[in-house]
Amino acid sequence: xxxxxxxxxxxxxxxxxxxxxxxxxxxxxxxxxxxxxxxxxxxxxxxxxxxxxxxxxxxxxxxxxxxxx
Length: 69
Prior knowledge:
Helix content: 40-55%
Oligomer: single chain
Low-confidence stretches: none
Distance between the termini: 18 Å
Order of helices and strands: HHHH
Number of domains: 1
Largest sheet: none
Number of strands: 0
């Protein structure tokens, strides 16, 4: 699953649980949110006024670190 702005938040967290920390650290209430299954990373970044490029970089890093373990 490529981690891009189009990635579904719920699917992303399910596939790479370590990415949940990125949303929590940035105070984005996506973890456990019922609406997350309908929203993309780009949409939640817009809602929470977060820079998409920076969030994507953190999500990718978290996913890669989890895979390496």
